[in-house]
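not sure who needs this but someone in the group chat was asking about T-cell surface glycoprotein CD3 epsilon chain from Ciconia maguari so here u go. i didnt clean anything up, its just raw.
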Amino acid sequence: PFITLVSLLVGPPANKEFLVEISGTTVTITCPLTESNIVWELTGTKQDSSERKYVIENYGSSPVNVSCSSSDKKHEMYLNARVCANCEELDALAVTGIITADLLITFGVLILVYYFSKDRKGKASASAGSRPRGQKMQRPPPVPNPDYEPIRKGQREVYAGLESRGF
C-alpha cells in the first residue's frame, strides 16, 4: 500500500520541455534530454556544441527552429522571442509593489475628495446667471393642463354628449 501511494504521488514522468532563459540579447536554451553528446540544430544547420545548454549570443529576434537530439531521441522547438539590449526585468514583487502603491494613492485621493466635498453639499454657490433667492419666496401655482380644464358654467352643452351609457 505504501509503494502504491508513493507511485501515485510521484506519478509517471511528465512530458519534458525546453528551458529558455533570456537576458538582454543572450538566449540560453536547455535541452530536455539528459544524455551526453547532444547534437544541436538551428534552422537546419548543425552547431558545434554538444552540451545540454546552448547559448545564442546577440540574438536578433528573428524566428528560428531549434532541435536537440541524442541517439534516437529528438526534441524540437520554434523560438520566436523578442529581445532588447537595454531592457530591465521586473520581478513579481516589484510589480506587486507598484500596483499596490498606485491603488493606495488612488484610494487616498478619493477619500480626500470625499471629505472636502462633503461639507459643500448644502451650500448653493452664486454663479453669474443665477438670481438670489429668498428663503420664504413662494412659487407660483402650476399652469393647469388645457386637456383637463374644469367645466365652466356656460360650457356644459359641449360635454353633454359625454354622459355615461349603460351597456
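also The mean pLDDT is 76. if thats useful
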